[in-house]
Amino acid sequence: MLAIRMGVLPRHGMPIHAVLRALTRVKEGLPHHLLHIIAGSMTTVPHPLALEAFRMFHLYNANDLEMFSELRRLEEEAVAMMGEILRCDRGCTGMITSGGSEANIAALYLAREHSLKRVYVAPTAHDSVLKAAKILSLEVVKVGITKGYTIDVNDLEKRCRERGPGLIVATMGTTGFGTIDPIKDIDEVARRYGCLIHVDAAFGGFVAPLLYSEPLCFELPTVISATIDPHKLGQVPIPAGGLIVRSREWFEPLVFEAKYMPASKQIGLLGTRTGGSIAATWAMLKHMGYEGYKKQAEELMDRTRSLLTLLRQYGFTPAAEPRVPIICIELKNDEYVIKSLASKGVYLYRCGLVPGVRIVVMPHVSVDVLRKVVEALVDVAKGLRV
Ligand code: 0PR
């Protein structure tokens, strides 16, 4: 008999009820979006329609472009709908990814394949951008920021003049501060120095273009690609990110040869990917429509503004004036604050770049929840002063 040393793998399988009981115990130990106060994360409770659509299609591999060619059609329509939100009126293409990180890595990869080997990155950009640059061996040019936590266009211009053409990453809804880089001014700099722009709208894509009339994305000629995540404010379950690119020609390097596949090709950085993410994204875009997401964005920004007023009344200072529903409250000792809040069942994140805590006003973060967050913060801050 084969001598196998058993560790955690049971020699004989456990009955289903015992497995489920064990999993239930694990789940009970985790914070829950509705039972606790999760007000620092960019995840929210997915819409029941999105979960149903995911369940209907999760079995199908979206990367079998022949057997499941209908899925690619759904994907292209979902991409076109998100492209419309990002003001691409025609010609855009792209794909549903596993999230914002994969979309950003793919965007920087496309730039590299089109001979842009340098990337201009501000410290407010999401970490996945530096991760992408590292994986792809791109030269990183660090760009300064203003006191308002947005890209300093004068500094960007200076760097572009010194270093030359490259891909500039602008963020529509910074992870730590909820600010938006001055994308229109960045476009002017890009034009002058032969650069292109990738807009990381992973969080802000379902908010900013629906609320603000200023040029923000594909209506600017140097914007070549954008990230927009359905699994953040799209109410779609994880995993669902979105990569939108201006043209089929720019997307081409993401079409890979795969000889063993019926279509002899695959798209994207991954292999097998679930059709569930595509169906869930398509379903929510069709269900919410432009006006549905606009209404959600307005409501979340209303809540954010009320929260800012309340926080200021209690003497808390936001690090920046947010334009998407993310607030960074400057606080020393943020690690202690986060831990103390968690012991009260209130889960926030740190802002990252500055000491402070971050609140993200997601759809499940109601006015009542926000009131409880502020109460808990006041309590913990009292402890800090003594
Ligand atoms: N770009 C921006 C602007 C982001 O904020 C994020 C994620 C990404 C890209 C990467 O997206 P994926 O995480 O989908 O790959 N920012 C979130 C954050 O830092 C990630 C997150 C989400 C972290 C939920 C924790 C959490 O509970 O908040």
SSE map:
Elements: H1 16-28, E1 37-38, H2 48-57, H3 69-85, E2 93-97, H4 100-113, E3 118-121, H5 127-135, E4 139-142, H6 153-163, E5 167-171, H7 183-193, E6 196-200, H8 208-211, E7 223-227, H9 230-233, E8 241-245, H10 248-251, E9 255-257, E10 265-267, H11 275-313, E11 326-330, H12 334-343, E12 346-347, E13 349-350, E14 356-360, H13 367-385
Parallel strand pairs: 1-12, 3-4, 3-5, 5-6, 6-7
Antiparallel strand pairs: 2-8, 7-8, 9-10, 11-14, 13-14
Helix pairs in contact: 2-11, 3-11, 4-5, 6-7, 11-13
The structure holds ligand 0PR.
Describe this structure in words.
- There is one protein chain.
- This protein is of the alpha/beta class.
- The protein has 2 domains: 29-47 and 290-385, Aspartate Aminotransferase, domain 1; 48-287, 3-Layer(aba) Sandwich (Aspartate Aminotransferase, domain 2).
- 43% of the residues lie in helices and 14% in strands.
- The chain is built from 13 helices and 14 strands.
- The strands form 4 sheets. Strands 2-8-7-6-5-3-4 form a 7-stranded mixed beta sheet, sandwiched between helices. It has a 3-stranded antiparallel beta sheet with strand order 11-14-13. Strands 1-12 form a two-stranded parallel sheet.
- α8 links the parallel β6 (196-200) and β7 (223-227).
- α2 (48-57) runs antiparallel to α11 (275-313), α4 (100-113) packs across α5 (127-135) and α11 packs across α13 (367-385).
